[in-house]
C-alpha cells in the first residue's frame, strides 16, 4: 500500500459553541447541517486548513445547536502550489477531519444529557479517469 504524499501532522479544536434549545412542537423538526472546508495558509510543503460545521437538531423532545471549527496542519513530500492545496482543502480535508468532528459531537451531546448524536458517514466520490492520469 502506497502512502498519500500529504499527511496530517496535527489537528485541534479551534472554536466551539453548543447549546440546548427549547424542543419544538411544530412540524418542521428536520435537522440542518452546513459545513465548509478552507485553505488558511500554505507554502510548497505545508498547509493549514480549517473545517467549520454548523448544525441544528430539533425534535419534539430535544433540541441542540452547535458550531465548531477544527484546524489541521498538513505536510507534503512533494511540492504543491496554492491551487493544489486549495483542491486538497476542499475535498481531502473534509474526509480527514470528519471522524474527529463525529466523535466530538457525539461526546458533547452525551455530556449535555442529550441522546448521543452520531453524524452519518460521508460517501467518498469516485475518482474520474483524468484524476487518475494526473
Written description of the protein model:
- This protein is 26% helix and 40% strand.
- By secondary structure, the protein is of the alpha+beta class.
- It has two helices and four strands; from the N terminus they run ββββαα.
- It has helices at residues 82-111, 129-133; strands at residues 6-20, 32-42, 46-58, 63-76.
- A hairpin with a 4-residue loop joins β3 (46-58) and β4 (63-76).
- The protein has one domain (6-113): Bacterial Protein-export protein SecB, CATH 3.10.420.10.
- Strands 1-4-3-2 form a four-stranded antiparallel beta sheet.
Features:
single chain, 134 residues, alpha+beta, Bacterial Protein-export protein SecB, 2 helices, 40% strand
Task: Write a compact overview of the structure shown.
Helices cover 26% and strands 40% of the residues. It has 134 residues and is α+β, with helices and mostly antiparallel strands.
- As a percent range, the share of helical residues equals 25-40%
> What distance separates the N and C termini?
19 Å
* CATH topology label: Bacterial Protein-export protein SecB
Instruction: Calculate the mean pLDDT score and round it.
Output: 88
Q: Over the alpha carbons, how many angstroms does the gyration radius reach?
A: 18 Å
The CATH top-level class label? Alpha Beta
